[in-house]
Design brief:
The structure is a single chain. This protein has 141 residues and is mainly alpha-helical. It has 3 helices and no strands.
């Protein structure tokens, strides 16, 4: 019989789980936006020649790493802003900041590198803006 009981269900306040989750979420968003960028360029055949594919492959690790860093910085800022806040705000603010900033950075990357405005596309499936027709109109790109 043990005299010490360890509660493994709730992480302690010094746990690295939220930090790892923020970095993992950022990295996942980075990979998804990179994949979406590759798909958009391939579909419109704009910037998907040998040099464009090389550029996209070269950008994979920096995009995933940058999004992970954005997630960590947003988590740190959220914890700093919610130091003396109620418990619900203390738990929710870092998560909302991580989601908001990583999605914003992903949208910016897709809008600048995924849709090459005015680049001559050969597929004929996309307009001159090179935004695929499947892209929702309510999300600007």
């Amino acid at each position: 019989m043990s005299c010490c009981v360890v509660d493994t269900i709730k992480p302690s306040s010094g746990s690295c789980l939220p930090w790892a989750g923020s970095a993992s979420f950022g990295a996942a968003v980075g990979f998804v936006v990179w994949s979406l960028t590759v798909w958009a360029r391939a579909y419109c055949d704009a910037g998907f020649d040998a040099g464009g594919r090389f550029e996209l492959n070269l950008l994979l690790l920096p995009v995933v790493g940058a999004e992970a860093c954005v997630g960590l910085v947003a988590h740190a800022a959220g914890r700093r802003l919610a130091l003396r806040a109620p418990t619900a705000v203390r738990a929710l603010l870092p998560a909302l900041l991580v989601v908001g900033t990583t999605v914003w950075a992903a949208w910016w990357f897709f809008a600048t590198r995924g849709t090459l405005d005015g680049y001559p596309g050969d597929s004929g499936l996309c307009p001159a803006s090179n935004v695929p027709p499947q892209w929702p109109d309510w999300i600007p790109a």
